[in-house]
Amino acid sequence: MTETPETAKQGAVRNISDTARWAAYFRAEESKRSDALFRDPYAERLAGARGVAIANTLPEGNKHEWAWVARTYVFDQFISREIAAGTDMVVNLAAGLDARPYRMALPPSLQWIEIDLPELLTYKELILANEKPLCALERMRLDLSDVNGRRLAFAQLNRRAKRVLVLTEGLLIYLAPEDVGKLAHDLAAQNAFHGWITDLTSPGLLRMMQRTSGKKLSEAGAPFRFAPPEGPDFFNTYGWKATDVRGMLKTAAQFGRPPFLLRLLARLPEGKGSQGNRPWSGVCLLERA
After folding, report:
1. Residue 69 — left, alpha, or beta (φ > 0 → left; ψ -120 to 50 → alpha)?
2. Distances in Å between the alpha carbon of 131 and those of 99, 101, 103, 127, 141?
3. Burial class of residue 265 (count of CB atoms within 10 Å of its CB; 0-12, 13-18, 19+)
4. Which of 26, 72, 83, 238 places its Cα 20 to 30 Å from the Cα of 166?
């Protein structure tokens, strides 16, 4: 678990867990701004020197900061809305180095469950050892590719809540379509699992990403894979329906974050369904169909 200056400077992504440091780096950078869309006072420590190195050595690793910030912002907005509507448990799958239980205004009674690989959660607990979450936080060490293990975990959590919100931030893009379908089916099988927030990428953007940072991630065993041609409608077959979809570019353009030419592109109409070859990414709020 010890990170030396030498290993941090290497910068290369070693495995999929390192992408959590990459994401934390962008939250840390956003938090330094006077006009920050959110504040994450823990992100810089969680990212560490390796997070900085990853962002600055991956091809285009820090070129699209606006998209990462928009994703976090929209997730925050949707989460707050769902909690106000009665969500009593949040289940964060592949939670990574997310610090929402510490930084968001959350009711103390809210159950917040983080599920991820043991090594990553141990690192996170070490960094946040002296911090106190604002809600009832639990961590479950589980490899989500263990289908039987996750089904058992979902069933146990289902019995503990009336209205569950699932988060998959930055996860699905690394899964094969058939694996996303199986996960969606497993989530829909739980009657209390009412909502699901996830990010989504178009096939056009996926191809662009595969030619840049995706090359290094593939070498680390974490290739970009999921970008359904049908867009949010992909989930209809598995018992979920998109009730709100927010594009990253349009969201970021509201705050003047993308480069000027991209802000011009953001003025074009944006459908809620398939984006095809258009370089698009967004956040979807799904509800049980």
Report:
1. alpha
2. 10, 10, 11, 9, 20
3. middle
4. 26
Tokens representing residue 105 in the block: 């205004």
pLDDT digits (tens, 9 = 90+) for 79-99: 999 999 999 999 999 999 999
Domain ranges of the chain: 5-57, 65-288
Sheet holding 111-116, edge to edge: 136-141, 111-116, 89-93, 164-168, 193-201, 281-288, 240-247
CB count in 10 Å sphere of residue 105: 8
Per-residue H/E/C for 237-257: HHCEEEEEEEEHHHHHHCCCC
> CA-to-CA distance for 36 and 31, rounded, in angstroms?
6
Residue in the structure block whose two tokens are 């353009």: 253
Nearest CA-CA partner of 95 in 141, 48, 52, 159: 141
Retrieve residue 1's tokens. Answer: 């678990």
* CATH code of the region 65-288: 3.40.50.150
Q: What pLDDT sits at residue 6?
A: 46
| Cα separation, 13 vs 59, whole angstroms | 12
Which residue matches tokens 């369904």?
Answer: 273
Q: In sequence order, which ranges of the chain are alpha helices (DSSP H)? A: 5-10, 18-31, 43-57, 65-84, 100-103, 118-127, 147-158, 177-188, 203-211, 213-219, 248-253, 260-265
Q: What's phi and psi for 199, nearest 5 deg?
A: -100, 155
Please give the C-alpha separations between residue 97 and each of 19, 36, 148, 275, 284, in angstroms, as whole numbers.
9, 19, 25, 30, 21
Stretch 162-191: mean pLDDT: 98
Residue 108, class by beta-carbon neighbours within 10 Å (0-12 exposed, 13-18 middle, 19+ buried)? exposed
Residues 217-224 have a mean pLDDT of 87
pLDDT at 3 over 80: no
Best CA proximity match to 54, nearest among 33, 99, 23: 23
